[in-house]
Structures are given as C-alpha cells and as structure tokens.
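Predict the structure of Phosphotransferase.
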Amino acid sequence: MGWEALELWGKDAVRIERLSGGVANDVWSLRIRGQLAVGRLGTRSDADLAWEAELLRHLDREGLSVPVPIPTADGRLFADGLTVMEYMQGGPPETEADWRRVAETLRELHGLTQGWPQRPAWRSSTDLLHAETGTRIDLAAMPPNGVARCRAAWARLVGRETSVVHGNPTNPGNIRMTANRVALIDWDESHVDVPDLDLVLPHNAAGLEGIAYDIAAQASAAWEAAICWDDEYAVKRLAEVRTL
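Done. Here is the predicted structure for Phosphotransferase.
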C-alpha cells in the first residue's frame, strides 16, 4: 500500500519533506491533525513493529523522552509497514557534558527494560556465538577469520545481564537534546543485548574504565561490523576487532 496508508491517520495527513538518515526506511516529516510528526515506511514485520511500539509506549509511560507512535483513526499503532511518531524537537549532542547526559539517559533505558523479551527474529551478541543469522546479520557472509574475531569479542559478554539497547546511540543524529531533556530517536536497531554495547560513547562519557571499556569497545566494534557487513564502515570496524 505504501504511503497511501497515510490516509488512515486522517484525510488531512500530508507528507512535508524527506528526512535524511534513513537507510532501511523511507522517512518523512508529516503534518497530522495540525501537528508536526514523523512517518517511517519500511518492510519490518507486524510482530517487529508491535515490539517497537510497545517498547516506546512503555518508555514514555516511565518518563523517558521517545517518539511515541501516533495511532491511526481506528487506533492501530502502525499500518502496512507505516509508523507515524511524534516529532522530537532539539539538536544533537555537541559537548562532553552533552554526551554525559546521553549516557545517563541510556542507563535509564537499560534499567527500565531488564527482562524485556527479544525483538522478533533478532539475536543478541552472545546468541551469535552459536547462531549465524539474526535479522540484518549474516555471519556466513563475513570472512571466517572475521567471524572468529567477532565471536571472541562477544564471548567476553557471556553471563552479563541484558536489557533493551538502543543500538546506534553514537550517531548524533539519533539524539534530540534540549536544556531540559534528552530524547532518543530512530529505534530501528534496538533489541535486547548487553547494555555495554550502548555505552562506548564519545569522550568515554559513560565512564567505562580499563578492561570494562576494552570489553565494551571490542564487542561494539564487532557488532557494528556484523550488522553493516560488507560496506566500507563495516570493514573499518572489523579492523578494530583484534584476535584474542
């Protein structure tokens, strides 16, 4: 159905302009019922979109600033691959102090989602010690030596508590800050994993020290190499994962 589904949010719902940053989705600013909003059209399954919508509603109820889904006129949170969400005002983090605020928000996210069920069809980093595929990850497509290095990095996370991770918080475009709050947007890569994967931030804003930072940085580089394989960025990230 494509963008024709937008009429389910009302006859006055319109697209305004395409937004940058979408890779797997077509993302536009919208006007819905007189208010600015964001629409994301993609190929995720209904189960996947339902998981994300429930997560965002939960976080909103708990006081975290997130782009809450706006329902259709008949109450659905998504339709035909289209999700409409609140538009989050603000700008990206710029200073070390800004990134420390981001780290605090991420830790709040992790605390609010301990025990959360895994996103449908996804795998955590430690699941991939034994599995080869999970949504966008296909380890069979990577060089065997690279897979071994990634798995060695992820093996150091075994036994850690898990929660929802945002999945891409180091991209400043995924953060909208004001003087009063930090909003996390673009939850397309969120899933259940070890929280340290979210905490390898600019300026080491999360305050990880020594071996804790090394474990997190290696596991994060391995994850980004696997999920992006095999573009230039993924190759660069894999080069950072050493043989143990």
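The chain has five helices and ten strands.
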